[in-house]
Amino acid sequence: MTGSFEGKLALVTGASRGIGAAIAEALGAEGAHVVLTARTAADLEQVEEKIHQAGGSATIAPLDLTEPESISRLASAIGGRWEALDMLVLNAALLGTLGPVAQIDVKEFSKVLTLNLLAQQALIAAFDPMLRRSEAGRVLALTSSVAAAPRAYWGAYGASKAALETLVTAYGQEVGNVTPIRTAIVNPGATATQMRARAFPGEDPATLKQPDAVGQAVVELLKRDFESGARFDLTRSGSSSRAGP
């Protein structure tokens, strides 16, 4: 297979289903070798098989990003096989329970922050050397509209995404003038995913855009030359404007 990303290496987190899987498949269709990470090996294998059947190449790396040392082991494994990482897509996230701020469960909130924020910083730190060795390293973080526009009962999830946006944007400013690395925040908007269904159980998924549309849009963004700190809003490509994942 030949494409815009022939010979490039991409790492996509939360790649076992939904938006993460769609991004991984779209990158594979453009010639990138895609490393797929998520907790469930069986689901990752299905995505890997789809990429292979379409003529692309992929490697699965089943792991829990919240487990101590899991990210460092992943970086060591990838670094031992490839010289540079060209694209890091930070998609994995945990919604948690929606509810009043005053009633947030501390243990669950800790889990949300661990995956949605702390693990993301650990990924950036672990793969920074490989990103610097790329001719045009790219870091994309998937966010939600509730990060910029707080919404009642979405405090825990929204806070984690707002912090993620700050973290990734700051990293982009730190490396933007001294390396070819560029960062971007991507808000996919209302998309028919399992997370969305849990947040809005009565919503008709037929009224939402499909993950494949987001995957294609993200790939098109990655083909572009953008400045660090860029923000891309894909909400207009869907039929719903409601805030959420």
Characterize the structure shown.
With 245 residues, the chain is α/β, with parallel strands linked by helices. The chain has one domain: Rossmann fold, CATH 3.40.50.720. The protein contains 8 helices and 7 strands. The protein has a 7-stranded parallel β-sheet with strand order 3-2-1-4-5-6-7, sandwiched between helices. The radius of gyration is 17 Å and the shape is globular. The C terminus is likely disordered.
The gist of it:
This protein has eight helices and seven strands. The protein has helices at residues 18-29, 41-53, 70-79, 106-132, 145-148, 155-176, 194-199, 211-223, and strands spanning 9-13, 33-38, 57-62, 87-90, 138-142, 182-187, 230-233. A seven-stranded parallel β-sheet has the order 3-2-1-4-5-6-7, sandwiched between helices.
Radius of gyration: 17 Å
What would CATH call the class? Alpha Beta
Average of per-residue pLDDT values: 94
CATH topology category name: Rossmann fold
- List the uncertain runs: 237-243
What is the name of the CATH architecture?
Answer: 3-Layer(aba) Sandwich
What is the number of domains?
Answer: 1
Number of strands: 7
| Structural class by secondary-structure content | alpha/beta
Determine the number of helices (DSSP H or I, runs of at least 4 residues). 8
The CATH superfamily is identified as NAD(P)-binding Rossmann-like Domain
Strand fraction band? 5-15%
Shape: globular
Distance between the termini: 33 Å
Major beta sheet, specifics? 7 strands, parallel
Q: What is the strand arrangement across the widest sheet?
A: 3-2-1-4-5-6-7
Order of helices and strands: EHEHEHEHEHHEHHE
Helix content: 40-55%
